[in-house]
Amino acid sequence: MKYNVLDLTMARSRGNIHRIDDNKKMYRLKCRWIGHHIFKLLVRSKSTREFRLIHSPIKAQGNVRYEFGKYFIRNNASKMVDCLCIQNNTKRLRKLWSISAIPRWEDQAVIKDSASMHNHQEHIDKGYGKPYLLVLRANSRLERYDLNTGAPLESLRLFNDTKFNEISQDPERGWLILKSVIHTRPTDSAPSDLLLRFLICKIAPMKMLYHIPIRRSDLEVGTQTVCISNGLLIVQGRRGSIKLYSLDVILDSATESNSRDNIAPNIKILGLGPCLFAINAFQHSLQINESPWIYIKKDSDFECSVKRIVDHKLLGRVNLRSTIDPERVTFLSDDTGRIVAYGKAMQIFKADTEEFRLYEVSNLTEKALFGSECRYTWDRIYKGDISRRR
Fold first, then answer.
1. Which is nearest to 281 in space by CA: 311, 312, 250?
2. Measured between alpha carbons, how far is 152 from 322 in angstroms, rounded to an integer?
3. Which stretches does DSSP call E strand in 217-376?
């Protein structure tokens, strides 16, 4: 029996896996097999791979963003950001709304699920019960918009005139993490010792929780930048040095004081606590998988190594010369430890704490992928050219 992507996706989302096949084969293999089969149908199967022109070429300034079935494209002529939808009709791009691109969009995020607030009617009335768009602007404001209509829902003033340029999420804690630019010279709001700032906000309802100034004196000499992700403070230093610290330990030992504008408590870091993990990686390129506990680190422009976290034992290496972009070596999101390397030949590796081996390879040439007359390459598709799609 042949399966198509629509049937597989609908069955997985509804939990009706056994209804697709009378012999219940898919039910026994569970959702993990389904996810891998969907991946093969979309990416590897030549018989189901089709590219077609769905719109005349669109010119955009900066990267083209795609989230939740929608493209976000800056229109240079009107100085607006247009939202184009293909979620309900893949045969054409349909414009839903436009929002002013001035002040400049520094970053954006689509919040798809704030389920913890769905039981409160006041939060549902404010639009937290459905997906919405967050826009981080250059004038230090965080704005929330309805994803389907573009109607403004909420606006939050950030810290003074500090410029924030990155949004990340911590779904387990229900946090939004805003990161400022690195301060290179002192100003009235940024003393010489300040490296950067973090603002941690609650996703729903949107409000400030912590303001964390990161000072150079709290870190090692030569620290280049700091990130917060999944409850970890990630410190990047010289020569590819990466060190991980627990954010909970840092906050427990820190002191709080009210800020001048009462936006959020100021967190004064008194110590980073014990280092949980330390490593050197080329260009600070590191990916960690939790099940099994292994990691990928970049050794050079042409090679990545896969190692075990507990003792840094080398499990295997991935040659990057066969890939167009080294960043396309990553863990699959099915919690199996499989690693995929995208390129003209797509390789899938099976990795766990004891072994590393080539699991599957698909030698798809550019001609097989796009057709003999198609002039688009993997690189252009990856960087946001939307004139052709799967």
1. 312
2. 46
3. 225-229, 232-236, 241-246, 255-258, 265-268, 277-280, 286-289, 294-300, 303-308, 314-319, 329-331, 339-341, 346-351, 356-362
Residue 121 scores a pLDDT above 50: yes
- pLDDT tens-digit series, residues 222-246: 899 999 988 999 999 998 999 999 9
Say how far apart CA 138 and CA 41 lie, in whole Å: 41
- Core vs surface per residue 141-162: b (16+ CB within 10 A) or e: ebbbbebbeeeebeebebbeeb
Only one residue has tokens 């799967």, namely 390
d(CA 136, CA 113): 19
Distances (CA, A) of 199 to 86, 211, 358: 34, 5, 43
∠ CA 339-344-348, rounded to 5°: 20
**Angle formed by the axes of helices 5-14 and 25-39, to 10°?**
120
Distance CA 319, CA 336 (A): 21
Classify residue 263 by burial, with Cβ atoms within 10 Å: 0-12, 13-18, 19+. Answer: middle
Q: What is the pTM of this model?
A: 0.74
Rounded-to-integer distance, Cα 119 and Cα 204, Å: 12
User: What residues does 222 pair with on adjacent strands?
Assistant: none
Closest CA to 315 of 326, 304, 307: 307
Greatest CA separation found in the chain? 71
Burial class (CB in 10 A: 0-12, 13-18, 19+), 255: exposed
Cβ-based neighbours of 146, under 8 Å, separated by 6 or more: 127, 132, 133, 153
Is the pLDDT at 108 greater than 50? The verdict is: yes
Question: What is the distance, to the nearest Å, from the Cα of residue 7 to the centroid of all Cα atoms in its chain?
Answer: 27
β-bridge mates for residue 2, sequence order = none
User: Mean pLDDT, the chain, as a whole number?
Assistant: 77
CB atoms closer than 10 angstroms to residue 256: 12
